[in-house]
Specification:
One of its GO terms (molecular function) is triose-phosphate isomerase activity. There is one protein chain. This protein has 254 residues and is of the alpha/beta class. The protein has one domain: TIM Barrel (Alpha-Beta Barrel). Strands 1-2-3-4-5-6-7-8 form an 8-stranded parallel beta barrel, surrounded by 6 helices. Bound molecules: glyceraldehyde-3-phosphate. Glyceraldehyde-3-phosphate (G3H) binds next to strand 8.
Length: 254
């Protein structure tokens, strides 16, 4: 946690979810009515955004997209603009997820262009960074992550327009997590980088941890300095698991 910074627990449904998933979302909403000490967000596949937005209303769970194109509109088959996501009810968009960087060859420069697009549309950009296992083994984790952060985030970021999500690639969907000391070190180095670049604003930009976050390990991870919430994949698909992670903040504040 960072003193004075309200945490964010965001769920990334990735390529999961059909209409029946509305029931899971409704169950999350019902349980989110009590303030859990953290902002909550679900990033469903784009096909569900408008439906979940109609259910969510002005309730306690915000919605986000999982990617966007840098342009406003045009001949880009299969792509979605940030404006379209905003129109469908999103207030944020995940950008530069390692699955986009790996599966679609996205570079940090392309991610930065998408961040500009998100800001143009009034969306908060959730920018993902993280090292592979080989890069960690080579002792390059800090260098890789700070390089991605520098290249993927344009000038002018604030705590309202930017959220960073640190996700070690080898921890995603594997059930493995870094040691608390490694998480502390990585988040602290990113905080220093954000402060050096954005001054006072960099102190309040949220840095989420992502990678095999579960109800059982959430409280320990979220208690680490400069861990301002979580980006949750698999465990965000079920209301019990997602709200179990959000409940870590009740433990921490209680
Ligand atoms: O965006 C979320 C992450 O990739 C984490 O996924 P996971 O919680 O399934 O490990």
């Amino acid at each position: 946690m960072t003193p004075g910074v309200r945490p964010l627990v965001a769920g990334n449904w990735k390529m999961n979810g059909l209409r029946g998933s509305e029931r899971e979302f409704e169950a999350m909403l019902e349980r989110a009515r009590a303030d859990r000490g953290a902002d909550l967000m679900i990033c469903p596949p784009a096909t569900l955004l408008m439906r979940l937005s109609a259910i969510a209303g002005n309730g306690p769970i915000a919605l986000g997209g999982q990617d966007c194109h840098a342009e406003v509109s045009g001949a880009h088959t299969g792509d979605l603009s940030a404006e379209m996501l905003a129109d469908a009810g999103a207030t944020a968009v995940i950008l530069g997820h390692s699955e986009r960087r790996q599966d679609h060859g996205e570079t940090s420069a392309q991610v930065a262009a998408k961040v500009e697009a998100a800001w143009r549309a009034g969306l908060t950009a959730i920018v993902c960074v993280g090292e592979t296992e080989a890069e960690r083994d080579e002792g390059r984790a800090v260098e890789v992550v700070l390089g991605q952060l520098q290249g993927s985030v344009p000038e002018g970021a604030t705590h309202e327009t930017l959220v960073v999500a640190y996700e070690p690639v080898w921890a995603i969907g594997t059930g493995r997590t870094p040691t608390a000391e490694d998480v502390r070190e990585m988040h602290s180095r990113q905080r220093e980088g954000l402060k050096a670049r954005f001054g006072k604003a960099g102190e309040a930009i949220r840095i989420l941890y992502g990678g095999s976050v579960k109800p059982a390990n959430a409280a320990e991870l979220m208690a680490i300095a400069n861990v301002d919430g979580a980006l949750v994949g698999g465990a965000s698909l079920k209301a019990d698991d997602f709200m179990g992670i959000a409940a870590a903040y009740e433990t921490l504040s209680g």
